[in-house]
Amino acid sequence: xxxxxxxxxxxxxxxxxxxxELILAAWLVGGLLSLVGALxxxxxGAMYPRAGGDYVYLREAFHPVAGFLVGWLTFxxxxxxxxxxxxxxxxxxxxxFVTLGEGExxxxxxxxxxxxxxxxxxxxxxxxxxxxxSAVAKVAALAGxxxxxxxxxxxxxxxxxxxxxxxxxxxxxxGLALSPILFSYLGWNAPVYxxxxxxxxxxxxxxxxxxxxxxxxxxxxxINAVYLWAIPMAELRTEAxxxxxxxxxxxxxxxxAIFAGFILLSIFGTLNAxxxxxxxxxxxxxxxxxxxxxxxxxxxxxxxPHLAIVGQGIVAVVLLLVLETFPRLLDFTTFxxxxxxxxxxxxxxxxxxxxxxxxxxxxxxxxxxxPAVYLxxxxxxxxxxxxxxxxxxxxxxxxxxxxxxxxxxxTQESGPNGR
Length: 419
Description:
Amino acid/polyamine transporter I, single chain
């Protein structure tokens, strides 16, 4: 979860909501929305402890075409798009140490995408160990930085609010600010996509969802408080890499460079996690005969869905070459996340009605009211994003619609319900 978002997006959030209380409220709302989504996904993931995530839930709740379309969107946009965003964030942070032009930044992002895909091609265990080590290092380093920043800046003064944006209503600005925030929380639902490879999924899937979100929300609120305490709001609104700037302001230029190195490590760890999880979606669909032949193959030596990993890497590279910039990739990916979220929350209601006897090791807390709040909130966010970022949202919808002819093609070979 803790990748590039908390370092590279707070400046954009501050530009939309240049009031400290609103900034912290937006990050808290993002965490709470993700937590409510985790309540629904915990029930679904415990019910269907198989690889595939949303693809499995929509297929069971509605029709194979619904499962296919959300799986298509998740694989091609959400996970491949996130890989592209993280790789681009890594390359941009690298400019702290070396001078890179725009074309060179994209080139570095492409090379990184290929390299991490190769790591995961050669083994689940290698990728998982790398992910666990980087996760512990990230949490420990951020906790230390937060404590040190407040200690050294104990005489600091909180950021003074600047004039709010006059070109859009506050509710629209708040909704647009939730786009980079929800992206920064992305990864909380990763366990449901690898549930088939988790020991005791009925117990461990819900625990991993809730514990991960709780830790991440506390860290995000604390580090945003550091940002607001350390530099003026006017400066915060214009910075592309707030984490590095604040580290420099608090600890000095050398510490800023060290923190930039930590950001690179953090992004790399999250990028590795996304590459680890995403191919399991294509794998699950291909097992059912609803994806390109070969994606269901497991490497005879390394035990990985190697062709699906290669496919995800290719899509991520294409997105890097087409969209190129961090904000465009970010909004493109977040809009797809919101669409998939709406779909799987709806599936929770349908499955409660159509499969009431199915074992549920965990049942969503607050059902039906709490998931309904989450559903409505995501619909509102989707509408605001469509209004504020029409081009990126249109591309995501186009990718979703492109799945229909492919679904027809796959079902001609494997039958209407897959294999």
